[in-house]
């Protein structure tokens, strides 16, 4: 009965996400009917696409497929990535306030991506594939440094993790700011990228980040039971057969991978990894077999809705996406701090 309820919740989240995707693509400076939007998207799906034919205008198809759909999909993928990373960090550190923005992960990724932008580094498949790699390296290095600094006697203090993480994040942000000042000709672009947003999203970005997030999600689901063991504490998890130290590094790599991919295309967007795991945990419980897919769906849903709000609230201008998420996330963070203080009292 409990399992059915959890699966039902996941199903409802999936349906809500699908509806939000179609509505988000339909809304904009030029409104396109939702049903027409759904048919245009469905007409490009493999196998079933030929079943959907319509009399929509060519301009409507161009707007949806070339402008709006890539943007909405990037918002979806970034939301999924940040929610997944937040779920991993919270389970790994047994810290309900662990978030990519608070423990240096997002800022490390931003520094790595900024370095790639600043020096014009291109390896592999080109600059677009270079930026996620540098962002991943920066994210992993930042989290590793924060983790090693706060680890004492085989334990990581929650308070120390937050304090060191915030301090180190500020240090990394100062380096990024220095690079921005030095590179005056690119200052405007880097500044708005760091504020967080998916306004310039395109299909190349979608294809660039999908492999990172897909691999990260699959590996996280594979280790979901081990994350459940970690919630019991490292000592207890080790007694039950888990190689805790090795497992932590695997999960740090996975979380850094998805954060790097997200930050490389959207800049720093805070609070997604903090809020969504908490909300889903209230609905499905702490079992990571349900918490991980639920957080993926909820993270994608939240950021798609937030991006839609960012586009419409000041149309024809738009708000940076990071400002919208902070508007909802900051009060939520204060609520968590107050709740934690009451529990400790």
From TrEMBL:
One of its GO terms (biological process) is siderophore-iron import into cell. GO terms for cellular component: plasma membrane. It is a multi-pass membrane protein. Gene3D superfamilies: ABC transporter involved in vitamin B12 uptake, BtuC. The chain crosses the membrane at residues 72-93, 105-125, 131-149, 161-183, 203-224, 249-272, 292-312, 319-337. One of its GO terms (molecular function) is transmembrane transporter activity. It is found in: Cell membrane. Its main location: membrane. InterPro entries: ABC_BtuC-like, ABC_transptr_permease_BtuC. The keyword Cell membrane applies. Pfam families: FecCD (PF01032). Keywords: Cell membrane, Membrane, Transmembrane, Transmembrane helix, Transport. PANTHER family: ABC TRANSPORTER PERMEASE PROTEIN MJ0876-RELATED, FERRIC ENTEROBACTIN TRANSPORT SYSTEM PERMEASE PROTEIN. Belongs to the binding-protein-dependent transport system permease family. FecCD subfamily. This is Iron ABC transporter.
